[in-house]
Amino acid sequence: MAKPHVNDRGFIRCPCNRCINNAQHQLEVLETHIHRFGFMSDYNEWIYHGENVNAASSSNVPHPNSGVHDRDEMFEVLEDIISNDAEVDQLGSQSSNVQYDDLFTALNSELYPGVMNKWTNKSFDELLKLLKLAFPKIDLVESHYEAKRLMTKMGLGYQSIHVCKNDCALFWNENSMSETCSVCSESRWKMQEGRRTGKNVPHKVLRYFPLAPRLKRLFATTKTAKLMRWHQAGKSTDDNVMRHPVDGRAWKDFDRKHPEFADDVRNVRLGLATDGFNPFNNMSISYSMWPVVLTTYNLPPWLCMKPEYLMLSLLIPGPQSPGKDMDVFLRPLIEELKELWENGIDTRDAGNDRKVFKMRAALLWTVNDFPARSSLSGWSGQGYKACPTCNEDTPSMRVIGKTAYFGHRRFLPSTHRWRSNLDFDGRTERKRPPRKFSSVDIMDQLRRVKTSIPGKHPNYGGVKRKRGDDELNWRKKSIFYELPYWAEIELKHNLDVMHIEKNICDSLLGTLMGDPHKSKDTDNARRDLQHLGIRSELHLYEDGNKLMKPAAEYTFSEANRRKFCRFVRSVKFPDGFAGNLLKNVAHNDSRIVRLKSHDCHVIMQRLLPVGCRSLVNKTISSTIIELCTFFNQLCARTVNVTDMVKAQDQLVIILCKLERIFPPAFFDIMIHLVLHLPEEAILGGPVYMRWMYPFERYLKRLKDYVRNAAKPEGSISEGYVVDEALTFCSRYFDDIETRFNRPDRNDDGIHRTSRLFIYAMNRVHAPEVTHELLSLASKSNIFVSSYPACIVNGVRFVTHARDVRLKTQNSGVSVPGTENEIFYGQLQQILEFSYLNDFSVVLFNESYKDDQFILASQAQQVFYVEDPSRGPNWRVVQHVNHRSIWDITEDGMSDIDLLQDNSSSNFTLFVDLGNLPQINLQ
């Protein structure tokens, strides 16, 4: 009777005592459930299986959306999980899974007799005890721990793999039963006085979170399955425009070399990031734990870097960092990546009627800071050949106490006049630009690298060896080369713009401010100039018994130093744009201290170009402005290939200008690496999807999981698995607030758009005249509401009268004119005009013209920075692109990490700051 009533996917409601017509299965699974769990005793009329009944006789039939068996979102969650986790045979059918029986039991039980209700996860053990005392018949878990234990069954779990105490090898696969390390022969277990303790306790435990089931879960629900195809539908149609890695040259080259992988858009492209962090709040404790995190680049740009879509893959234990032995810990992940590439895995696609397809995955690149990059790639970031792109042609020279990466004239054309100029280092430059090393060249170099013993045992892997000249800076052949496609990838390891920008900002700001702790203008730097025989006016000299250092043009005078500090102290940013820099200025206006990465990001791109131009000469200020403008251009959400090609050539000029200004000691490896950022942008696409900001913030989330300081790795692993299950369930809850539907920080609710129509159209009953339009055509209420602040499209606006009392600046507005001109002003009034039927219109009165009103939706937020060179009433306009506003049409917008400008073409690299928009507020 039931067979003719299956749906188009072959599924039908299951009337067993566990599913109670809430879950749907195939017929063979339904039959198994009925034999195992029994048939519903109160299901007498089979309304879901073909029996026709009238309304009267069916009034007592349990309905999935009524009565005691209310349809709970958790049934939908479990259906997707079971469908995804079930074993798939060649015919595409699935076997029954019994591991979720207690979850179905909990779902079908009543919270209180006669009441079915939901209960959030915010309850604590004390509240649970109180409820059980107040309501003895209530059916609740005993503790929050029990609730978490129940939820872990909906998570995907992890594997605990023992590690040698010297990081030589894993006790895994063929070595899983070994008692001693296969390399150094050290015991697997902790020993006390030469004997084991009462219980076998391993020295170290690596937590591995399998990748395949987590990727399968992305396809298990329609909430994310369709998003996994975005990279195909959302890629740019203009080859010159890049807004996602799919638009980069590396992605396109990978597709060209592996067409069978590119044919199925559901195949997954991954990025890998890792960094060490201290899991304790007490930073005096030396402890370095290294999580390995994966991101999925199939997703839209506003989602793939969100923490809900980042996947923890490995948790490398501390207290020491793995260093050169990183490959030992990466072994489980690499083996799974090889399997996913070569064989794939059967996966049900909820976005395609749950049809089974063979999902494959590939690792596109890694994202790390420069020291971690050395551990992953095998190329040492120290010494004369530290640059991984220039390779053995890295421009470098030895100065007192360090290596300086100086000599960027070699990148100039052979006929350029600066090549023969002696002002740089006292010599002419005849070297050719560094060569472009192909994948074949790199593999030839790696063949000459000697195999090293892993681990830190003093008699094995811990023995230091001197690299041969033919090994260059290679310390090892990375484990990533075991991936069949890795050698041909154009962009293997990204240079992290976040750390490069921070280090350059610290060097620039420390040298300009004359900070004794961060300035590169040291006594040794001056001695270097003397040894090179250049810039005699900066050489050290003796005055009696004192060694004197002449003042340099690139260093602020004491008065200018205080002026710059007061300028930074006076800046107020829009709400959510940046932190308050007031706390970073020393109380005596002599130093700027404790800058974090994002503080440096804002100073480099917003403040330093404005603040420095009146404090140093034009040659120095214009060079600094050009460098800062490049970072503005690089960090745009939409990057133009043409802009990056031009920036590649212009950066050579900028670095050569810097070499004529600062001493060679100023040029550490971070200054040099800037030269390669445009090329990587062309290969990989926009920077905001290839830098460490989202991963660094994800480490803070992992740190919050630590509840037991004695077992930080275990705490993080357990907390992650539970949070993973809760995150998956949260996608299904629409009627309660979750991380997927909670209001934004600035939520303005529902907007109405209006156009005025005349009454005549209403008389002829024109269909265009709605109640809203008719109301707006009528006169407004004689009473007008005035507000000091409002939120429009997620952007907070505040009137100037209130703004002056706040630490943020949200009163700056701009509005486009009729002839493409832009008008700037400050918001004076926010007025709401009320109409019939509760309709209203919000107008802004801004200070550009008296009685000049604009619609609130027309206003774009800007903020103003004091211009020290033109007096107290002059301001430089800084445009803001709000984090939740994108230039891509798509549902489900979400915020991004930083406020960035829309397009790299908004900036000219060689710029005169006097041409920037300025207004007089007098």
Please name the defining characteristics of this protein:
alpha+beta; 29% helix; eight-stranded antiparallel beta sheet; eight-stranded mixed beta sheet; 30 strands; globular; 15% strand; 26 helices; 922 residues
Which descriptor suits the 3D outline? globular
Number of helices: 26
Strand order within the widest beta sheet: 4-3-7-11-10-9-14-17
Report the major sheet: 8 strands, mixed
**Total count of strands:** 30
Helix and strand composition category: alpha+beta
Radius of gyration from CA coordinates? 32 Å
Tell me the β content: 5-15%
Query: What is the share of helical residues?
Result: 25-40%
**Low-pLDDT sequence parts:** 55-71, 89-96, 110-123, 749-764, 889-901, 909-914
What is the arithmetic mean of pLDDT? 83
Q: Between the first and last Cα atoms, what is the distance in angstroms?
A: 85 Å
